């Protein structure tokens, strides 16, 4: 059984998980194998000027810091990412984990359902541009666009996009999701999959509004505030506007699937089916979220988000806990495939001028006891501080007995 040593310094962390909503960080906290410090995973502090709140712990073989964002949106996320970089200077990967709105129908006929998970290959800042009287034009020059992931992240993505890698990732995700659900059985928040009747896709142009005679201000192009806060059941959204889909009948037993593609990021909550489809076609995106653009230029980043709605006016919160759990489970599965840097603790300590931890070494130089092989013939053994056990002779310092 492997024993993991509690990190003594923030430089021993290479991975961050960033969450914008409490329901997202709650789900992520369930994939930690242990927390460092007190029960809340606090205790390693932060740099001067950093205003972030952190939880420190271990996920698999990795020390991981969980970042709790104070607000949604790019501005809040960018400020938090800057603070994160100042406190955790050795970060190699930040995973933005949580929920998103999915584009239900993709080019080539593929369909995304609620509960599926999106992994970013790139992030498109779709609301950065110029608003003219007749239209909005996104800034699309090289200097305005967010760059592609670095080679480290591209290598990780390449390892899970083939059939073998994707199947392995999927199975690990399902195993972790099952553990999350078992761990929280009987809790207030339920991470089980909602019934198929809660996964409904309507025509993009069909608005979520009062359709009967109602003195509220709803018309063919707008909905009143009361309608916006009502469910499709309350408003009796027309069944003849529901789009029939390939897996509609058995979605209860359907395992969540993993999709790779470009993710649209902006400061607007997307609640328009027509606008969703227009942006998806123009920029080839498969999901909408609000934080990716704020992290992308600050820290090497992946977006891993579960689909909780279709980014239209009928969106609700029914699928949010399950989608957050699927994203958290996928994050743990990905981190299980991400290589850990060798001797990170010793390297960090040496560069900071701190003494490395004392360990017992087999046939190596260093502090601690040196245990060397014995056998017939001359013994050629390493030297170092500590007692030297050398063949049939025992050497203490410069004296041999």
Walkthrough of the structure:
With 401 residues, the chain is of the alpha/beta class. The protein folds into 3 domains: 10-197 and 254-335, 3-Layer(aba) Sandwich (Rossmann fold), CATH 3.40.50; 202-242, no CATH class; 362-400, no CATH class. 26% of the residues lie in helices and 20% in strands. It contains 10 helices and 16 strands. The protein has helices at 22-29, 74-87, 151-161, 163-183, 225-228, 232-235, 273-283, 292-296, 320-335, 344-352, and strands at 15-19, 34-35, 53-59, 62-68, 93-102, 117-125, 129-131, 136-138, 258-265, 285-289, 301-309, 361-362, 370-371, 388-390, 393-396, 399-400. The strands form 3 sheets. It has a 5-stranded mixed barrel, surrounded by 4 helices. The chain has a 5-stranded mixed sheet with strand order 12-13-14-15-16, with no helix packed on it. Strands 7-8 form a two-stranded antiparallel sheet. The protein is globular and about 60 Å long. The model is unreliable at 358-372, 382-386 and 388-401 (pLDDT under 50). Residues 389-401 have a biased composition (Low complexity).
Supply the key terms:
3 domains, Rossmann fold, single chain, alpha/beta, disordered C terminus, globular, five-stranded mixed barrel, 401 residues
């Amino acid at each position: 059984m492997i024993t993991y040593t509690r990190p003594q310094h923030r430089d021993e962390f290479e991975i961050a998980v960033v969450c914008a909503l409490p329901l997202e960080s709650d789900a992520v906290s369930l994939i930690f194998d242990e927390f460092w410090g007190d029960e809340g995973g606090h205790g390693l502090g932060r740099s001067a000027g950093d205003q972030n709140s952190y939880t420190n712990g271990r996920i698999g073989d990795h020390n991981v810091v969980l970042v709790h964002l104070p607000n949604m949106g790019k501005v809040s996320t960018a400020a938090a990412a800057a603070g994160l970089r100042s406190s955790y200077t050795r970060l190699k990967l930040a995973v933005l984990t949580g929920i998103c709105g999915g584009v239900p129908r993709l080019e080539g006929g593929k369909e995304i359902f609620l509960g599926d998970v999106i992994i970013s290959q790139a992030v498109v800042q779709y609301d950065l541009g110029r608003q003219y009287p007749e239209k909005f034009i996104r800034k699309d020059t090289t200097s305005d666009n967010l760059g592609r992931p670095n080679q480290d992240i591209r290598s990780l993505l390449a390892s899970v996009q083939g059939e073998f890698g994707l199947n392995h990732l999927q199975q690990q995700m399902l195993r972790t999701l099952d553990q999350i659900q078992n761990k929280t059985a009987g809790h207030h928040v339920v991470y089980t999959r909602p019934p198929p009747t809660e996964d409904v896709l309507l025509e993009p142009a069909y608005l979520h509004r009062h359709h009967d005679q109602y003195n509220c201000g709803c018309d063919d192009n707008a909905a009143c505030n009361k309608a916006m806060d009502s469910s499709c059941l309350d408003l009796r959204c027309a069944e003849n506007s529901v789009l029939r889909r390939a897996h509609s009948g058995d979605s209860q037993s359907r395992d969540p699937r993993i999709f790779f593609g470009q993710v649209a990021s902006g400061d607007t909550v997307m609640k328009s089916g027509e606008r969703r489809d227009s942006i998806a076609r123009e920029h080839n995106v498969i999901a909408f979220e609000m934080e990716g653009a704020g992290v992308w230029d600050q820290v090497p980043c992946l977006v891993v988000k579960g689909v909780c709605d279709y980014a239209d006016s009928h969106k609700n919160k029914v699928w949010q806990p399950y989608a957050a759990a699927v994203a958290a489970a996928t994050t743990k599965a990905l981190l299980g495939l991400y290589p850990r840097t060798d001797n990170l603790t010793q390297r960090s300590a040496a560069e900071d001028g701190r003494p490395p931890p004392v360990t017992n070494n087999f046939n190596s130089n260093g502090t601690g006891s040196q245990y060397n092989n014995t056998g017939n013939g001359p013994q050629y053994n390493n030297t170092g501080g500590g007692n030297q056990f050398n063949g049939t002779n025992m050497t203490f310092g410069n004296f041999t007995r």
